[in-house]
Amino acid sequence: MDVFYSYTYSTAAWLGIQAMPLILSPKLIVTMLALETRKPTVLEEYFCRSLGIALVTLGILTLLLTGTVPLTSTFAESVQTAEASDPKAPYAVPTLTLTASFHAASAFYAYTQYMQTGQTSFALSVAGYGSLAAMGLWVLLFGSSSGRISRKTGADKRTSGFPFSNAEADKKKVGRKRL
Questions:
Q1: What is the pLDDT of residue 176?
Q2: Which of 35, 58, 117, 179 has the fewest CB atoms nearer than 10 Å to its CB?
Q3: How far apart are CA 108 and CA 102, in angstroms?
Q4: Residue among 24, 33, 143 nearest 89 (CA)
């Protein structure tokens, strides 16, 4: 399993872990978050369950739109790569971009809440969302075709020019005139 699949499954699992208590016991969540002990209102329970369902939906959409879960009926036609040109997973890179941005924004928000309140749950959220945001950024930069191939030279960006010369890029420039 490569890092692309690890990222999509981790995103779905993280969102599912957060959704479970919101769906199963919204009274407990509201009671834990309230400043004074009181019975939660029907509206608070509704919003907890709605958020939980939205998180589950976002996790499932991440798995489906990135092509991690094949939508074909035969095994031979299953998705093999997360390339942007792959017709079976045309939304993989945009979905990765949105989920990585979501994780980064959520990590930032959890960090601001942690700095205000000092609660450990926010620190755990920062760790979870921050690691997924970093993994998502890594997948976007190095795990997709748009992050590997240079548009200017057509060479693989994973080859380094320092301290050695980039022979692949030099091969592309052989027939060109220099000023």
A1: 67
A2: 179
A3: 10
A4: 143
Q: Which amino acid is at 72?
A: T
Burial class (CB in 10 A: 0-12, 13-18, 19+), 85: exposed
Q: Cα 79 to the chain's mean position, in Å?
A: 18
Nearest to 83, CA basis, from 2, 28, 147, 23: 147
DSSP-H helix ranges across the chain: 3-24, 26-33, 42-65, 92-117, 120-142, 145-148, 167-172
| Maximum separation of any 2 CA atoms in the chain, in Å | 78
Higher-scoring residue by pLDDT: 122, 177: 122
Read off the tokens for 119.
């609660």
Reported confidence tier of residue 155, pLDDT bands at 50, 70, 90: low
Across 31-64, b (16+ Cβ under 10 Å) vs e yields eeeeeeeeebeeebbeebbebbeebbebbebbbb
Nearest-angstrom CA–CA distance, 163 and 39:
66
Q: pTM of the predicted model, to two decimals?
A: 0.72
Position 166 pLDDT exceeds 50: yes
